[in-house]
Amino acid sequence: MLSENLQFSFPKIAVPLPGFLGGGEFTLIDAFSAGVGDESTRAAARTRINTNNANSAGRITARNNELASLMDAQQDRINQLNNAFQNQVVNAVNDARVTNNVDTTVMNAPAMPSTVEASGPF
């Protein structure tokens, strides 16, 4: 695993002080280790990633269900519009063709077919 190879240990950097400055040593940098983590931090990161992925998948599923519900409602509206068109326009033309028996009118044309086919769900 790449994270196991990215561990660095830095030594303590200290400079000895001369006697007239008090002696001893002056520490520039304490020793420390740097890297992307050990096994426990990698396991915690994996857990966070899996939790975030599960939450994201849940949100996507919920949004897909919401969209499917909206599309079903829209399909119902389209079907209602088709029925209204059929009842108001096509039937009115057919009724006028039967009752208006004048050869010179457009109403004597053959029955007007419905141009809207009932489509399947999206």
Q: What order do the SSEs take from the amino end to the carboxyl end, as H and E?
A: HEEEEH
Strand content: 5-15%
Helix-strand category: alpha+beta
Q: What proportion of the residues is helical, as a percent range? A: 40-55%
Total number of helical segments?
Answer: 2
- Strand order across the largest sheet: 1-4
Q: What gap, in angstroms, lies between the N and C termini?
A: 45 Å
Silhouette? rod-shaped
Total count of domains: 2
Biggest β-sheet, characterized? 2 strands, antiparallel
Rg over CA atoms? 40 Å
| Overall pLDDT | 78
Unreliable stretches (pLDDT < 50, length at least 5) are none
Number of strands: 4
Written description of the protein model:
The radius of gyration is 40 Å and the shape is rod-shaped. The mean pLDDT is 78. It is of the alpha+beta class. It has a two-stranded antiparallel sheet with strand order 1-4. A two-stranded antiparallel sheet has the order 2-3. It folds into two domains: 1-36, no CATH class; 38-112. The protein has helices at 2-5, 39-99; strands spanning 7-10, 13-16, 25-29, 32-35.
Index terms:
two-stranded antiparallel ribbon, alpha+beta, 122 residues, 2 helices, two-stranded antiparallel sheet
Topology readout:
Layout: H1 2-5, E1 7-10, E2 13-16, E3 25-29, E4 32-35, H2 39-99
Antiparallel strand pairs: 1-4, 2-3
Brief write-up:
This protein has helices at 2-5, 39-99; strands at residues 7-10, 13-16, 25-29, 32-35.
